[in-house]
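INFO worker-7 received task bundle
INFO bundle size: 2
INFO processing item 0
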Amino acid sequence: MDEVHLSNLVIAAGCLLVVAGVLHLFCQALEVRQAKQGRISARLNVRNWSRRSIYPGVTMIALGALLLGGGHFV
């Protein structure tokens, strides 16, 4: 069986953080409303973003990028 290297775990954690950050920003931009006749309308709207709402997503992306970049040095 292959060995699990620490650098592979660090890179995987970085990938997960980047994906989670992008998903968080996408969910913050998604605006869901009820339309006519019981339908649901969904739109992307970045005007609702504030520093407080996007801070976790941006932080996850930044930490993930650091882990991805530094994972080869571990």
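INFO item 0 finished
INFO processing item 1
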Amino acid sequence: MTEILAFILGVSAVAFVWVVVVTFKTAKLAKQNKERIRSIEEWISRNDEMINRRIDQEIERTNQEVDTIYSVIDSRLDKLEAKITNNKQVLKG
């Protein structure tokens, strides 16, 4: 009977040590995963910010190009209007 009890206690002690070791390894792994997740979130945040900046820069550049085009068109229309006005006066007079 004592041999069976000693065997059971020995197996229980080994199982307990194994459970403690597995628990600590799991806790360590969970901590590493938490750090990795935080690192990935920071990376995603930085990339998102960079993409938003690039989009804003492209929008600004496009707006400047459109303003330039409108300015050129306005200038050409003013010149055309001046020519038409001058031609009407020549025809009237």
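INFO item 1 finished
INFO post-check item 1: The chain has one domain: 1-68.
INFO post-check item 1: The radius of gyration is 40 Å.
INFO worker-7 idle
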